[in-house]
Design a protein that fits this description.
This protein has 510 residues and is α/β, with parallel strands linked by helices. The chain is built from 13 helices and 11 strands.
Length: 510
Amino acid sequence: MRQFGSRQTRRTQQTWQLVAGSAVVGLAVAAGAVTAAGPWDSGQRTAERGRAAAQELARGGHHDVAPLPRPAPSAAEVLAPLESGSDGSDSSADRPDPGSTGDPMRSRSAETDAIPPPTAPGLADALAPLLKAPALGPVRTASVVDAATGGELFGARQDEAATPASTIKLATAVAALSALGPDHRIDTTVVSAPGEKREIILVGAGDPTLTAHADAEGAADLRALADDTARKLKKRGATKVKLGYDASLYSGPAVHPLGPNENLAPVSALMADEARLDDSGHGPAARAEKPAPSAAHSFADLLRDRGIKIKSDPSPQRPPKDARRLARTRSLPLSALVERMLTHSDNDIAEALARRTAIATGHPASFSGAGKAVRKQLKKLRLPLDGARFEDGSGLNRADKAPASLLTQLLARAADPDHPELRPILTGLPVAGFSGTLRDRYRDKDSVGVGVVRAKTGTLTGVNTLAGTVVDADGRLLVFAFMTNGTSDPHGAQQALDRMASAVANCGCR
């Protein structure tokens, strides 16, 4: 514990030096710092802070809700050792075979092997007292794992299943990326029957990020879809059409078992802007009760603006089997959707990706089918599933269960050089004090965790969880999961979990 206190002063000084320096030189210095520092030495930790600080300065420090959030920063400079190219790219075409001498993850493993992980007694000395915090509930579990080896370094009731809240999104992300691949995109299309010139159908395939906003920022664009559709209709000589819409891809209840709420729209294969009734891009908001007809009416208005008359109100209609595509718009790659889901804890994306996983694995695209699909994919990856339950993809359902040991193994698998398709899970994690659901936490800027802890949060009434990655004081990459259920002091519990993550960051525990 004496070691913890001595390192705190040193890390505090480094934090403020990096933040001040980043204000002058920005992202270029953050990138250069990592290049000079190498994969996982102390330069990695300062580069993490510099990158995060530069991103905050680029935003001007405003904490307003953006109308359309950009995909989460991928932190290519920060996580360069996890990627395939020296420029931080993750192109599967350019990635060397895992067995080749040029594989960067094997190089990372070789270098981190020279840095010993913290010892189990050392971590216990740092974490055991923090687990006794009175703000934590009666259920309090913890797991810390070495990312390079997958070996557990610390555990406290780590195999006991607890309600994970939004940290269950880590399981959703692993399942979706492994089943579909990081380059998978979701198409929203306009189709018509062969020979039919004056009847079209808007077909949804489960992209909640489809947007009707003027600036789509790379997302599937309802306006662009209307542009293409109107142009092709006019080319056919059809300026008055009947518009149908199809959202039949999903089955089962559309409303979450939690009931109608502002954290999740009714789950539909066709929706625009997550069925939000305001201009927000994430967070709670009033939602349309029927997302599919709402999206169809928005599309009809866009067609009218482009000179196409609509015969009547849009109505549900399934396309014939031989329907031909007239136009389409595509989502961002799944890698970007996963990043956005994790950074902003986006429940709508989580439920959509769980259903896309269900479709890919032959299960019904429903809450139940998605849960079975997620379990099937995780089982294929040989992850520990004892006690785990997947009742939804978002973590809003209190019946979801996961042990801390599962959460850390999910993160360790995302860092595994044999699974580069899972890397967006690491790059999408919020950065402590700077981004996503961790932006307003670790507000004490001299905290050792600021810019170093990257973690998925989970919060329900009486439930607080935190699971992510951290580079310890010696430069070793660790993954952790801290969970508590039954707390009556949510703010105090949140702070207690944050202190544990900071303790791991500050630890060179021997």
